[in-house]
Amino acid sequence: MASRLNPYITFAGDARQAMEFYKEVLGGTLTLNTYGEYGQQDTPMADKIMHGMLETPSGFTLMGADTPTGDHNPGNNFSVSLSGDDEAELRGYWEKLSEGASVTVPLDKQMWGDVFGMCTDRFGITWMINIAGQGG
């Protein structure tokens, strides 16, 4: 799979409704995964969206999730996602983007099985890197 770059939007508990709306507008295939599916069954977030992805016939990709921290700020509720399975390419992007950045999640294996990291670069842009199928 080629690496992709797309927006990632966070929501204050209504990610399911928002992503379903965007599917109505843009068409395509919508995949939604809840926090409960990834080990948080007995929490208030169990039915909330941990990760949603809309892929459209026009080649658009939009990702979104409910923020688990409660610090939702409309207008500042997005980041840029880089994802794919080319480990060398994506690790290279991570190394460059995280230099001088504030790293919120170190690039490491996550509960869903991929390697993931998140940082806010020196210009204030939040980046998420996900390397599919890598065991860390």
From TrEMBL:
This is VOC family protein. It comes from Streptomyces shaanxiensis. PANTHER family: PROTEIN YJDN, PROTEIN YJDN-RELATED. CDD domains: PhnB_like. Residues 5-129 form the Glyoxalase/fosfomycin resistance/dioxygenase domain. Gene3D superfamilies: 2,3-Dihydroxybiphenyl 1,2-Dioxygenase, domain 1.
